[in-house]
Hints:
Layout: E1 2-11, H1 19-30, E2 37-40, E3 45-49, H2 51-67, E4 72-80, H3 89-100
Antiparallel strand pairs: 1-3, 1-4, 2-3
Protein name: Thiamine-binding protein domain-containing protein
Organism: Paenibacillus rigui
GO cellular component, one term: cytosol
Amino acid sequence: MAIVELTIIPIGTSTPSLSQYVADIQQVLEQSPEPIHYQLTAMSTIIEGDLKDLLTIVHRLHEVPFAHGAQRVSTSIKIDDRRDMKGSIEQKLKSVEAKMSR
């Protein structure tokens, strides 16, 4: 299972606020037919699932701001694809928390 951190920034909009674009992207993500788990953060969205599915979803989400009037979109993607063990968003957080309590 892979984990993708995704930040989509519409450029050339009529307002400096991006929350409506974020909401539109989250709605598309919620309707995703792929078996994924995701978490919205203040600065990005984190999605876990099969890498092939995640890349399909990233493409779908990248198109959302264009469909809502943006003239340009900048998308940043980080991929964590660990294959020696099964990982998840939750597992990564627990690993760090366990080391902090030592």
